[in-house]
């Protein structure tokens, strides 16, 4: 890492400065309120009486049951754990909070961090065109090594990655390299500048074309954790077969609002893995 990159990574981001500014004015406001309350006799006397009462409570002796003491200990341990996790999370580098998705090798990936490493089990790859979760599988080749086959069930297109037996680990190394080298802020800025998909709130679903509607519905299903392995489209309609996950009520509500506004028919059928081959014939 160059000296300039190290300096940039050490400097606070715009979000960090905004939070610091908010915290600064918050404490200034609280201090002014406390100072003002001190010069109001009624408030000052009330605070003094409450202070004396609290001191009497602390000086008094109490008898408590064993289970009450046990609950207090458990509550204190849980509070200490939560505070520790909060402090650890805020001591991690900024990229563990902001760099959680990007495009590598023609696949749109999202992931979670565990410490300063990518949690490989959390990595999910999506089609860069339609947003469908991709079927990624290793395939032996004639050279005696292993390639990776990537297939999109919606676009019905596939491509291969040569000499990458573990595609997710292959991408994980690139992600961590971009994070450590400080390239990730530029990547996020470039992707935001080049994105072509309009924001949901700017789309007029009453006049949107079928491809835009289908793309949005597929993205909502993916965000809900549903894996789509087959779909069938026709004019103003979409039927989807899913083999993994359950659609949340929020996702169904969003899809319902879109289909109602666009006068679009949508059908979702959940099947077991054992029925997958029967549906794909």
Task: Give a short synopsis of this structure.
The protein is built from ten helices and eleven strands.
CA gyration radius, whole angstroms: 27 Å
Number of domains: 3
Taking the sheet with the most strands, its summary is: 3 strands, antiparallel
- Please state roughly what percent of the residues sit in beta strands, choosing from under 5%, 5-15%, 15-25%, 25-35%, 35-45% or over 45%: 15-25%
Strand order of the largest sheet: 1-2-5
What is the tally of beta strands? Answer: 11
Overall pLDDT level: 76
Low-confidence stretches: 196-201, 273-281
Shape: elongated
**Number of helical elements:** 10
Structural class from helices and strands? alpha+beta
SSE order, as H and E?
HHHHHEEEEEEEEHHHEEHEH
User: N-to-C terminal Cα separation, in Å?
Assistant: 52 Å
Helix content: 40-55%
Give the tags.
single chain, 281 residues, alpha+beta, GMP Synthetase, Chain A, domain 3, 3 domains, 3-stranded antiparallel sheet, 10 helices, 11 strands, elongated
